[in-house]
Design a protein that fits this description.
Blueprint (H helix, E strand, L loop, with lengths): L2 E6 L3 H14 L3 E6 L11 H16 L3 E10 L10 H16 L5 E13 L2 E13 L17 E2 L1
Parallel strand pairs: 1-2, 1-3
Antiparallel strand pairs: 3-4, 4-5, 5-6
């Protein structure tokens, strides 16, 4: 019998990525999406944001879950867009983001993934992917993963 694990996200692109990974690497887990937009605290501390979201998600689901906080950082700017990634995307759109970058600029994605087994049992994982930015003429990426169109690892 498969173990159920909920991934708390409203982002179908993120859910699809994690589903593919778990299907290939942990077939004993049945991943289910719990669609909830968890309100984020405002902070430049990405791990603090992820932990707060994990605690809020547990209060909703009360079952084993995953939640993440992902951000892209343009190395030429101080901690930007960073924890403001989603707001910058919604505010500026594809063309606005293009105005902020030059091809070849260094950038990195930082991900905090949290597995919550119980309200007081959080397991924090962090991953970073370094790369460079490109400036595509036309947006051809997944609308829920817009920075993938600009980032090359």
């Amino acid at each position: 019998m498969k173990r159920e694990l909920y991934y708390v996200t409203t982002n179908p692109g993120k859910f699809a990525e994690i589903s593919r990974f778990l299907y290939a690497n942990a077939p004993e887990i049945e991943l289910k999406q719990y669609s909830a937009d968890i309100e984020e605290i405002q902070s430049f501390d990405q791990q603090a944001i992820a932990i707060d979201k994990a605690k809020k998600a547990w209060a909703l689901v009360q079952k084993p879950l995953l939640i993440d906080d992902a951000a892209i950082y343009f190395d030429a700017y101080n901690k930007f867009p960073g924890t403001l990634t989603k707001f910058v995307t919604h505010g500026l759109g594809f063309e606005g983001i293009k105005r902020l970058i030059d091809p070849g600029m260094l950038a990195h994605f930082l991900l905090h993934m949290i597995y919550v087994q119980a309200p007081d049992e959080l397991h924090i994982f962090q991953g970073m992917c370094k790369g460079t930015l490109i400036k595509p003429d036309v947006f051809s990426g997944h609308p829920q993963l817009p920075y993938d169109a600009f980032f090359c690892s």
